[in-house]
Amino acid sequence: MSEFKSLLTKLIHEGEKEARIDGAVVMPIFQSSTYEYGGSGAYDDIRYLRLNNSPNHHLLAKKLSMLEKTESAVVTSSGMSAISTSLLTFLKPGDHVLFQNYIYGGTYGFITQDLPEHGIECSPIDASKPESWEQLLRKNTKVFYVESIANPLMVVGDLKAVTDFSKSHGIVSMIDNTFATPVNFNPAEIGFDIVLQSATKYLNGHSDIVAGAVCASKEIIEKITHRLNHLGGCLDTHACFLLNRGIKTLALRVDYQNQSAVKVAEALEGSKKIKKVNYPGLKSGESYSRAKELMNGFGGMLSFELDMEPKNIDSFLRNAKIPIFAPSLGGIESLIIQPSKTSHVGISEEERNQLGITDNLVRLSVGIEDTQELIDDLLTTLDKVS
C-alpha cells in the first residue's frame, strides 16, 4: 500500500529509494551488467542485467504496478516484446487465441502470421459484439486479446464483457492499454488478467526511447518474467532512467492531451473534406457511451477518413506545419500518419479494406502544442488541398 494519495504525487515519488543514493534527488543510472551473488538459488533472481533486475528496473516495476493498480510488473525492451512474450507464456502448440479484429498492425501480424507457424490457431472477434464470441470459442482457447482503445479506428469494445467471458471460460484476458494510458483507464479494476503497455508512447512521452511493460498479479509476472529472461527482452538502464523521468509528468501531459484531442476531433468533424472522425470522446461515435462509463478521459489519439484523391492526402500530410509526418504516437509533439502505409502496412490490402483501414484513413496523435494553433493548422492545410 502506497503512503501517497494523489496520482500526481505517486508518479514523482513511488518506487524511489527512501535513502537517497549519496543524496542524489534523481535515481542514477546503474551502468553495471552484473552484481554480486546474493545466494538466491533461483535463475530469475540472479543479479544480471539481462534478467531485468537492476535497481533501475526494480524502481520502474514498482511505479508501473502502482500506475496500473496491479500486484506486480516487469519492464521490457519494447511494446512488442511485452506483447509477444506474454502471448508465448500462455500459448503453446495446439492452443487457440481470440483477438480483436482491428488492433496494432504489429500485434495483428504476430497473432495471424507468426503464432500459426508454431501451431497456435487464432480467430478475430468484434469486441463490440459479445453475442458473437461464444460461437468462436473452442475447447483449446486459452487467451482473449484486445486493446482498450483499438488502433487505428479508436473503437472501445465491450471490455467488461471480455473479462466476464474470459473468467467464465477459464481464459487469460490480455489488454493493450497504450492508447488509453493508466491515467484514463485501469483495466485490472474490471478484471483483466494482464495489462500491456508500449512504454515508448505515453508513459515515456518524449519520442526518445523504445520500451514495454507488463502489469499483472505476482504469479503471472513471475511466469512472464521467466519467459522474458529466456527470450532476452531486457531494457537498457539508460532507457530505464529516461522512462522513469517521462512517467513523472504522465498525468500532466495526458490531462492536457485529453482536453486538446476532444477539441481537435470536434473541429475536424466540421470539415467538408473529412467523411468521418474516429474518437471515443465524440458523442456522435459508437464508442462514446462505453468510453464514458469506463474511462476518466478519452485520450490523445484520433483518426479521420479524408474525402480526397491519394495525391492530395499526401499533400495534406506533408504540408501541415505542426503535426510531424512520422510514425509512433504519445509524445509531446503531434504526429500524423497513414496507418495503411506505416503501422498496418504488414496487413494485406484486402484485410485492411475489410477492416476499414483504407488509404484515406489518417491517424493523428495530439501532442501538447497550443490546441487552437493545431486546429487552425489542420483546417487551413485541408482548405488548401484541392
Concise synopsis of the structure shown:
This protein is of the alpha/beta class and 386 residues long. The chain has helices spanning 7-13, 55-68, 79-90, 105-117, 159-168, 181-184, 218-231, 237-247, 250-269, 288-294, 310-319, 349-355, 371-384, and strands at 72-76, 96-100, 121-125, 141-147, 172-176, 194-197, 212-216, 274-278, 301-306, 324-325, 335-337, 361-365.
Largest sheet: 7 strands, mixed
SS class: alpha/beta
Measure the end-to-end span.
Answer: 58 Å
Number of helices: 13
Radius of gyration, Cα only, in angstroms? 21 Å
**CATH class designation of the largest domain:** Alpha Beta
Q: Which shape, going by the Cα principal axes?
A: globular
Task: Spell out the helices and strands N to C.
Answer: HHEHEHEEHEHEEHHHEHEHEEHEH
Number of strands: 12
Mean pLDDT: 93
Kindly report the spatial arrangement of strands forming the biggest sheet: 1-7-6-5-4-2-3
Task: Give an overview of the whole structure.
The chain is an alpha/beta fold and 386 residues long. It has helices at 7-13, 55-68, 79-90, 105-117, 159-168, 181-184, 218-231, 237-247, 250-269, 288-294, 310-319, 349-355, 371-384, and strands spanning 72-76, 96-100, 121-125, 141-147, 172-176, 194-197, 212-216, 274-278, 301-306, 324-325, 335-337, 361-365. Helix 5 (159-168) links the parallel strand 4 and strand 5. The mean pLDDT is 93.
